[in-house]
TrEMBL record:
GO biological process assignments: siderophore transmembrane transport
Pfam families assigned to the protein according to its UniProt record, in alphabetical order: Plug
Compartments, record wording: Cell outer membrane
Organism: endosymbiont of Lamellibrachia luymesi
Domain of life where this protein originates: Bacteria
Name of the featured protein: TonB-dependent receptor plug domain-containing protein
């Protein structure tokens, strides 16, 4: 027997072991999906459906991915006010905040300052990642008010074969409400600490001829923390490291969704402004002129035709 044969056997055993270990892990993750639903729900209840995993609607127990679904009822029950609050409650996600943007990582990995470029964010299937850094910030500056979210579908793992770039850690698809979910007008007003104020007015309706509409306008203003201490700037020339009244934030958002038959027209106008107290990018410390501003406008026309229960064509 050649001396190299035991080495070949060892390599072969390692390869076979890795293959079966991968199968066990995959089967375990799939089993976790089913175990999250109790036996009575599997037998008698409605098993949730998901679209994002394969780009057609299927039961979560049939989807080839690890999926979490957060509904509007859960968002209201737990008092989430931003999409970042939702992600912070999900297993495998971690979030951080640098007084300018919020960041999220997955599976213990998150590069500071990468603007969440490894997660693909969708709103009703429309790509939200911007075209400069390919990033997205799911906090107060998100394009849709959280009260207009019907559910959030979170698909873990790479999905670049379906969605292209950014879908490395996962895909987050925000499904918005429809006119039938409101059936009239809604007015919401809230206030909180740090002189924070938030308001929203929405109108939704589904008419007898099948036409459906949802219109909404919302705004948010906050003064933030009035005094923040940074030891790195503890010097008389830098106000002894104290940033005063430079942590404010405000957001304005308009959203419209019209649908008739297989056609859906949706549009967004959003602008977000944030004071930056950390003097990032070598700017002046404790200077109210240091600000971040971003805006987004998009109009999306979608035609969706369902040929069968597993074949959906969208354009």
């Amino acid at each position: 027997m050649s001396k190299r044969q035991p080495l070949y056997y060892l390599v072969a055993m390692l390869v076979i072991g890795a293959f079966f270990a991968g199968q066990v892990i995959a089967e375990t993750e799939f089993a976790d999906l089913e175990s999250s639903l109790d036996d009575e729900e599997l037998l008698f209840g409605d098993i949730p459906s998901v679209f994002s995993a394969s780009k057609y609607e299927q039961k979560v127990t049939e989807a080839p991915a690890r999926i979490s679904i957060v509904t509007a009822d859960e968002i209201q029950r737990y008092g989430h006010r931003t999409l970042m609050d939702v992600l912070n409650t999900l297993p495998g996600f971690q979030t951080s905040y640098d007084r300018n943007y919020s960041y999220t990582g997955a599976r213990g990995f998150g590069v500071p300052g990468d603007f969440n470029t490894r997660i693909l964010m969708l709103v009703d299937g429309h790509r939200i990642n911007e075209n400069i850094f390919d990033g997205v910030v799911p906090d107060r500056g998100f394009v849709v008010d959280i009260d207009l979210i019907d559910r959030v579908e979170v698909v873990r793992g790479p999905a670049s074969s379906l969605y292209g770039s950014s879908a490395f850690f996962g895909v987050i698809n925000v499904i918005t409400k429809r006119g039938r979910d409101l059936q009239g007008a809604e007015v919401s007003v809230a206030t909180g600490s740090q002189e924070s104020y938030q308001g929203r007015i929405s109108y939704g309706e589904r008419f007898d001829n099948g036409f459906e509409m949802l219109l909404s306008a919302s705004g948010y203003d906050s003064e933030g923390d009035d005094r923040l201490y940074y030891p790195e700037f503890d010097d008389p020339a830098s106000n002894n490291g104290i940033a005063e009244n430079v942590d404010d934030a405000n957001n304005r958002n308009l959203y419209a969704k019209l649908s008739y038959g297989d056609f859906t027209l949706s549009g967004v106008y959003e602008e977000y402004e944030k004071g930056v107290p950390t003097a990032s990018y070598e700017t002046l410390f404790n200077d109210s002129r240091t600000r971040t501003w971003e805006g987004r406008v998009y109009l999306d026309l979608k035609y969706q035709l369902t040929w069968s229960t597993i074949l959906v064509q969208s354009s």
